[in-house]
Amino acid sequence: MSLTKAERTIIITMWSKVSTQADSIGTEALERLFASYPQTKTYFPHFDLHPGSAQLRTHGSKVVAAVGDAVKSVDNISGALSKLSELHAYILRVDPVNFKLLSHCLLVTVATRFPADFTAEAHAAWDKFLSIVSSVLTEKYR
Fold it and tell me: What average pLDDT does this structure show over 9-22?
């Protein structure tokens, strides 16, 4: 699966807005993940998972920074996220389904933050892009 030129344009254009709120979007996406899918908390036993905690903000920033790396390397997402994929597969041993859950929470967060920009076409492009990111992050599991 790859993005069309139009989809890449949508992602890159919207990213310029998303990146200005990266920290709060990352935090909110993680808060949604833990509220909607509490089983995902098991990977963070050492974190303070209360809304707005410093650890959630720090990790949320890392999550959105990784998405930003994928946006910047939209034509080579696999290369951009290879080390992150290895970390999650071999060291952290995160269940691959969690990437899809987080992608969904990130999609919802972006949609709620930018409703005017989140057209049907933008929704489809972001969904496809985040599916590619999730797929890349699970490559090392195979």
Answer: 96
